Amino acid sequence: MNLKEKSSIFEFVKKFYSTIVIYIIAQSIGKYISIYMVNVVGNVTNALIDRNFIYLKSNISEFLILLLIVSFVVPAILFLSSKGYDKLIMNFSILSYSKFLKQKRGILDQYDEGEIIYRIPEDEVSYTGGIYTLLGDGSIVIFVIIQSFYIMSTIHIKFAVICMILSTIPILLVKYFDKKIEDLYSKEQDSLSKISNMERSIIENFSFVRSHSLNNKVISSIGEQYDSYYDIYKNQTFIIKALENFKDIFSIVCEVLIYIIGSYYVSSNQLNIGNVVKFFGLSIILKDNAKLFSKVLANYFRLKAATTRYVEWTGNEESFGDKQLKEINSISFEKLSFKYEDKAVIENFTYKINKGDKVLIEGKNGSGKSTLIKLLTGLYSEYTGDICVNDLNLSEIDINEFRSHISVVTQNPFLLNLSVIDNIKTCYRVDKGDNIEDILKELDLYSIKDKIVGENGEHLSGGQRQKVALARALVAKSDLIILDEPDNALDKNAQDYIIKKFSNEESIIMVISHNNKWREEFKNKSIVLK
């Protein structure tokens, strides 16, 4: 792991350490009681053999209390611990999305939307689960080993070492064998995939095969593939069965060896039966512990991969200055150039916009119109030349403060799952705003002002969604209003109202549109990108 990945894990532990500690304590209590129960059972066995009824009578209450704790208290503690983990997942998800929203846009452009939608929840679960397992279950593994070995070594050190080895090695070897078997099955599946692809190709190219008399060659080729698959299947089936049998036998042999060696120590009077019971019980616990260790080991490798992926989409935050802006009075582009995947999108672009200017951005598809807006709003920072606001370089400005002076309306506006009027009010400036109800009436939204729009406006038509976004920009009274194809889904009356309304605003207005009415209203002041 590199330094950024390690820092990410350290930050996670620092933020959620209390939940991890509670999990470790809860699991440790459960394991400690299990180990203590084995110890008590061993002592009870000795008391029964020795007919020590005084010991049994004095300790029966302790035994019953332990049974009660194991049956009810420990499950309750573990349940509360699991609820804590669920809460951690929820909080971490919120934290992850807050980081995601601060990332450089250029990094996110490396993935398509579907991949990001899939990766965020998957990486979150792998990342949190990996850390949780590594620290939580890893601590439990160490605790059980120390506690079990301490009890066994105080009774018989040699048998303690033997039990430790024979209890853990089979589980670790089984995991090794399982990996080998999985690899063998993978080779078999690859061979089957080749056959399947060939059969699909024959079906798709049926006419070509028939018209070129390739029947015999095709059948011969399929036969060769099946022969190859059969050879792989025949050889691997024998190896797989042998490995599966060996891992089962090896596990049984190790378990039997513990019983045989324990019996030997009893027969030679080195151990009594009660102590052997303790060893057998602790061996079972150590066997489960070895399984947990193999889980920790597997999760460690998953965590490494998940951390790399998680840092990719949360570890590249925007970096800007700290200079504040009270308002936006001017915007200038000086010899601005930008490349996307080595393709020049904007080259040597120079232009100045002053307060109150209304500018139409024109150009064919792919000429850089939307890219220019993304550069201005700080979504892309890998450019040459300068973008200045009030004669300050964009890189020196507090980007969040700058964005608070901007309103953007896109072709596919984002709406919150609130009512129409509440969506508009999210940007309402009481000190500057127009009367919201007047705008609602002009845009024919008044009758649905209390309607819940649904997730991203799914309960509204495309035109209604566009109107809500435009109304939101109007009431915000931002210093800079950017409209990207704002009237595509609007009827003629709404288009005329919007064009006239924005043309009379005191703000800087930048519009991307193919509607000639904007050019007429803006007095032919335009940026033409080629």
From TrEMBL:
Residues 21-302 form the ABC transmembrane type-1 domain. One of its GO terms (cellular component) is plasma membrane. Pfam families: ABC_membrane (PF00664), ABC_tran (PF00005). It comes from the Bacteria. GO terms for molecular function: ABC-type oligopeptide transporter activity; ATP binding; ATP hydrolysis activity. This is ABC-type multidrug transport system, ATPase and permease component. The keyword Nucleotide-binding applies. It is a multi-pass membrane protein. Keywords: ATP-binding, Membrane, Nucleotide-binding, Transmembrane, Transmembrane helix. SUPFAM superfamilies: ABC transporter transmembrane region, P-loop containing nucleoside triphosphate hydrolases. It is found in: Cell membrane. Residues 331-530 form the ABC transporter domain. InterPro entries: AAA+_ATPase, ABC1_TM_dom, ABC1_TM_sf, ABC_transporter-like_ATP-bd, ABC_transporter-like_CS, P-loop_NTPase, Type_1_exporter. The chain crosses the membrane at residues 20-40, 60-80, 129-151, 157-177.
